[in-house]
Write a structure and sequence with these properties.
The chain is mostly beta strands. Helices cover 0% and strands 41% of the residues. The chain has no helices and nine strands. The chain has a four-stranded antiparallel β-sheet with strand order 3-4-5-6, with no helix packed on it. Strands 7-8-9 form a three-stranded antiparallel β-sheet, with no helix packed on it. The chain has a two-stranded antiparallel ribbon with strand order 1-2. The radius of gyration is 14 Å and the shape is elongated.
Amino acid sequence: GKIILSPEYTGIPNRFKNGISDVQKNKTYAFVTSDGKFLTPFQYDRVTNTDSPCFIATRGEITDVFDDHCKLLFSTTYTLIQSLDDNRASFYDATRHGRGYLSRNAK
């Protein structure tokens, strides 16, 4: 078969959502399509996998939430964003020690 991603990555999960997956190189992550096109640079410290169609990735203190085609919906400093259902994401605010919801159009 044809090589889509060369064997230079330290982590490639065995999952795709809408033809998109995260890949790890050393200690950072990026998002890539099933045909090998990179959608983001290797800049994320952590990727959160959810059952929802969205993608969630953290870089430092910033969490980016992407739609099901890996288009950036919003960035936030909230931690533990868990899912995006009914156009909202649940999150945890460590400074207030509480949970809340963000709308899909949050800034």
